[in-house]
Design brief:
The protein is an alpha/beta fold and 274 residues long. It contains nine helices and eight strands.
Length: 274
């Protein structure tokens, strides 16, 4: 079948994957009667020779060359070839980057693929938050093996706030309350010790935290939940469990969530050991 050389074609050129240019081209094409356009993507352009070959091909067609090039040498090559061939081109990023530079009084990073990198980080955080919610308070222990870290500790040792903070840093986090009357799920003991973090706290500080919690619920503070004996029993139980696992233990007494979370991140990512 003979190729229709008069049919409009848009060459999408990028030093990344070209998603941005294609999105813009489709949006513009939709404003015209047919909305139909042939698109040919040319991603990961690295040198002038690729650009020269592109113009030789495009010169035989009724073509537009739309490009998102951030590397200065490639942008210059594109502009020079466009002049030589009197081609129809559209610099999708250029004018906007110039505007940003003028307004912010700073220079662009000139790193291809920044949008994709930012999107990947964003979706990683979203997935991590969903994972933390799904595996909060000992739910879904079968998913522990998919976690970057599992936090264990008795009630009111900041397990959930830490889980959510770490999730917003892109870490998959589960947490499990330790209760003397309840045997931990067997999945916990199959995890590598470095994937588990134990949390302990000063008994008197914990008692005060629990008393405030009881008061907020409208209950009296003479419950076993706030007794020093009960708290000591729970802490001793937690120590036995974390010793059995062989995991790192952090004391969260008088520490902000951010401080403890940063220490956990350092440990997970191979930083300081505790």
């Amino acid at each position: 079948m003979t190729e229709n050389l008069n049919k409009p074609v848009v060459y999408i050129v990028s030093d990344s994957i070209g998603d941005t240019a294609e999105f813009v081209v489709r949006a513009v094409a939709s404003q015209f009667n047919s909305g139909q356009v042939e698109m040919r993507r040319m991603p990961f352009v690295e040198n002038r020779e690729q650009i020269r070959e592109l113009f030789l091909e495009a010169s035989k067609r009724n073509a537009i060359i739309a490009y998102t090039l951030v590397v200065p040498e490639l942008r210059q090559a594109m502009e020079e070839e466009a002049l030589n061939h009197k081609a129809c081109t559209a610099d999708i990023l250029g004018s906007l980057m110039g505007a940003f530079s003028r307004v912010t009084c700073s220079e662009p990073r000139l790193e291809p693929g920044r949008v994709r990198l930012m999107d990947e980080k964003y979706f990683r955080r979203v997935a991590a938050v969903e994972f933390a919610v799904k595996h909060d308070d000992g739910k879904e222990p079968r998913g522990f093996n998919k976690a970057d870290v599992v936090l264990v500790g008795i009630s009111r040792t900041s397990k959930t706030p830490l889980s959510m903070y770490l999730a917003h840093q892109g870490l998959m986090v589960a947490n499990l309350p330790l209760v003397p009357e309840v045997e931990p799920p067997e999945e916990l003991f199959f995890l590598p010790p470095e994937k588990v973090i134990g949390l302990i706290i000063d008994p008197q500080q914990l008692r005060q935290i629990r008393r405030e919690r009881i008061k907020a619920l409208g209950l009296t503070d003479d419950a076993n939940y706030v007794s020093v004996e009960r708290i000591e029993e729970e802490l001793e139980y937690a120590r036995r469990i974390t010793k059995k696992i062989g995991c790192t233990v952090f004391d969260v007494s008088n520490k902000a969530v951010e401080e403890v979370a940063n220490r956990i991140i350092q440990l997970i990512r191979g930083g300081e050991k505790s």
